[in-house]
Structures
1.
Amino acid sequence: MASENLRFTTRPPRDHQSTSQRLLQPHLDHVGWRAAKTVKFVSRMGFTVEVCVDSVESAVAAVRGGADRLELCGNLGIGGGTTPSMGLFKQVKRTCHTARIVTIIRPRTGDFHYTLWEVDVMVEDIRAFKAAGAHGVVFGVLDALGSVDVKTTSRLVREALPMQVCFHRAFDMACDYADAFTRISQIPGITRILTSGLGKKAVTPESLEVLKDLLERAASTETEEKLIILPGSGINPTTVKDVLDALLPHGLKEIHLSAGAWIPSATRFRKADMGMGVGGAGEWGIWRTNEGFVRSVREIVDEAVPKDEEPIPVPTEEEIPAEEEEQPIEEPAAPEESAAVESEPETASGEPGADEAGEAEEAIPQEEPVAEDEEQLEEILEEEAQPVATDGEELEVIEVDENTEEMLEEEIQPVATDVEEPQVVEVEESTEE
């Protein structure tokens, strides 16, 4: 790659908005910041599209495609995902700062029957993401017989509140889905259930029938807040219309998808007969969310949602100003020029009113004078020792005579305090005996 195509800057971002404007670009630039297009995220209150992601790049693609909420995972392409790192969460939160982010709490791949130590790990992760500003958490716990573990789930929910809580597809692994629904609905604080309708894909006729039943159960169950049924697995641009046609009449409000696939990595050297045990496309591939898939699903959803719940239009792209060039340090103005009328402060885009908007550039500090020899040093010190003028007025130097000094000394007396000085009592010898 030619060096002239790279652009670096060490200037720190002024705020999270500036960070997002530089990160939300069609293809993230891994070598430095540069001007880009950003997405204005608009929450759609009528219908929610949730996309699960496991990287900043996938999060950007999902939001640009029209996702309302992100389920943040780690290792999404391997075993369904695990708890993401705090570093990933913070970077996605900075980059997609207006998107709602829920994090999966899953200490490992495999089943959903956890040891006490694993539950303690889940509790610590919930506390950490809660403190970091997550919108919600996603987890699911079953006992050894395949029923919802009410005791452990209740403990995790209490730790998570007031965040939203989603019971994930551990629900599909339960031995009896009706019993699982009843147990979950009796735990205060659970917001939604992510389910494929008990099948591998939520789009099969059998799964859609189960999802209809769950939607009706959720609507008829008396709880503080109605449980939301969130269908997921197998939903994509070619299947989403069937899902919407079947479930919108039963109260469907949200869908979940990954819109992801393995893409080739940028690694050119690949050692023969070596790998890290993933196998298949994931051995040398990278899991990425497809922005086009998300956008297609978003458009189909917006067309299918009833007119009285018509969502706000899909987010639009907006050009942002390029990174400003560093300005050379100007010499101090001459005294006769100091009375010139100051112009209004300008924003980074060149419009007035930067101070009111809180986006004014920080003033560039002036260089300190440097002395090359002792004589110049003395001159600099003499200039710095001169009285400092304020508001353009020169300070008046007052000569004090001897009488005035005496008067000042009389006025400057020690300040009395409420605490009296202790009196020293002389003790006679007879008294000591």
2.
Amino acid sequence: MIQQSEQRSARYRRGRYDQDETSGGISRGDVDDERSYRAAAELLDDPAHPLRAAAYRYPVSRDELRASREGFRSLAGGASVFAGGVADYAHSLLASWYALREHEELAGRLEEDRLADWFAASRLKGAVVTTSLQPVRPIHPSRTADPVAVYAEEGLVLSGAQTFEADALFADELLVLLHEEGGRTPVTIALVPADDPRIVVQTRPELTSFVNVVYEAVQIPWKRVLVDRSEKDVSALLGAPAASAYPAYRWLARQLEELELMAGTLFAVAEKGVLHKQLAAQGELAEAIQGLETVKALLEASELQAVRSASGALVPAPLPLQAAKRAFGPAYRLTLELLNRFSAAWQLDAPAAHAHGTEEDAALLRWVQSLTGSTQAALRSLHVQYAFGDSAEQGTAIYAGYPLEPLKERYRRFWRQHAAE
């Protein structure tokens, strides 16, 4: 196993980093890729790893649905490059499109034969797929008019740059969503082999953070294009209740775990002094608890109310998930704001004590900094901003999907009863 790990890690260094030294990225000496590789080595060195097979399955029972909360992000106790959950999100999208391809919301939305062929071959290989929450942009910022995709008879040619999480270094496939110039919604969906020689991955100082993927005229044949320039179809594949339920469920599970970690840290900081010195502190902490428990309850409700599709897939209930997405943003922002404020108050309250404090206190402060002011903290904010959409969009989705008629009928019965009296 060690020899395999060293061989594969060396292959990534030679094939994916060397060009970086001449393209403005971080050189190999600045990146501890061996450590990050070993954190996920149990998956990367084992083509038959159970998580690879599980990534291609859509749950058919509540036990399977609950188990799917883990995924690649659970590797090494959540300390690998897959901890961000983006690879799990990509696989959830693909599994949903495949399992529900005959669902009325998805039928005809993508090239089903192409998806079936790719899915069968990739599942057999156990290919690891990831995606990006960021659009593809022109390689040269000064040439924004340059198209990132040129469509030809054989397929499309992709030229541009895209920010990924560092799991892209170890992925086999990239799920790429392409926008029209100036558009907010993707119009094309393609699957790109990550080992294409015309792809360059530029690393950043922290391998557990971001990488810059550069597409240098990458040729993508039509058999790898699932949707060709249709904003309506892509919007349905990403946002229709049936298609988005499973990806949203797994993404929320990951975000809930992050929120629980932040809340635990917040309580530890509060107990250092703010809790007993500021009368409003307990009330604010109660609000943070309420937000956390609301998201947790709604995620549980999506499991309990899950509906079985005609194909046998157990689809999490969309409405509780939409409500959870809307509840998560305020809960996240409040917890982050309190964590910043309470930790600052703790440090200002007794600066001399901190200078001679315990190692436990120093470790707690370092951890707070990593949660609130680090690159990973910025990544969490991006997750909230790009994955859940803005508050107005979330509100529209909830209202559109809510069963209003039973409540309106209750109102009518009330007035009919009182009118009769």
3.
Amino acid sequence: MTELESLSRNVEKKFKDALWERNIKQVELAEMLHTSPAQLSRALKGNTTPRDIEIQKQAAKILGIDL
């Protein structure tokens, strides 16, 4: 596994753990962010497009986590 793949998995795990701890579903978070569940899923998996990075930042702020 490359370093980039490892970092992406780490980001994905942080989001999944935070969602679980706060009892929030991805669909609910997508609604809070005014984006589609599919777009949110791509962002939470660690995609690095500018839109995905913006979604990651907004989601992290809502969930109270550091990336």
4.
Amino acid sequence: MEVRIINATTLSSLGSARVAWSGRLGTSSLSRLYSPGKTLQEIRIQAVSSFPSVVVTREKGKNQKLIDLLDSHGISNLELPLIEHKEGPDLDMLPSVIQEKTFDWIVITSPEAASVFLEGWKLADFPKARLAVVGVGTGQIFEKVGFKNANLSVDFVPSKANAKNLAEELPKLSSERGKVLYPASAKASHELEMGLSARGFEVVRLNTYSTETVKSIDPSILALAVSAPVVALASPSAVRAWVDVVDLSTWLGAAACIGQTSALAAEKAGFKRVFYPQSPGIDGWLQSIIEALETQTAKEAA
């Protein structure tokens, strides 16, 4: 198992034949590669000159920033959304809980949790909210809103972007038992609230959304995806979704993860090579992708 933490990587030219393919595979390209009756092997053979280097897997509509960065560095990419977000069982409770109760902290652990919380906060008529976010990337969701509304402030980010450090480092604001609101994915582990409870915090968890695996994938797109040497993964759910559709015993590519949480999930799932940045975020993620590509290219040349 090779797990590499990326601190800083020179954005060098990869010099791979795979990089000659530019941009996402559009509908017109797919129509040339795929038609009813073709086998996946025939699609692979026909697409050999158009292999993507990286598969991007976030929910549909949330891959564009990474795609633009990859395009700007000449890295060919294929968009294959593997997950989708749906309403959680506690979503309707969120506005009233925000409005009626006072919390020392509202803890946010992902960009999607941030977006869902903001909608509830607006419906609750913008009450004061002191936020603790798991990392810089999640905090950026609040930046524009924070500049416009003094009632919303990001006041804490842990030293490492994971639930363990957040639970261990969240400040207590008084000697009394602090109250924490934790709007989360229904699929999120209980590590955070258990860690906070062990320190004496009273934690209210609301499962405001759920991360689900996409049920149907176009076989032509999947055929191209398995030709890529690197898959970009932004959550444990995406890791699980990739493993559900790709046999890791025959696909020998690398996982480039957005942060440590996803990387640990990839390692447990059986990926042989896992790369992730020390600090989660889009720029570090790009560096991890480049490092993974360089390693894969060197491996193929050996």
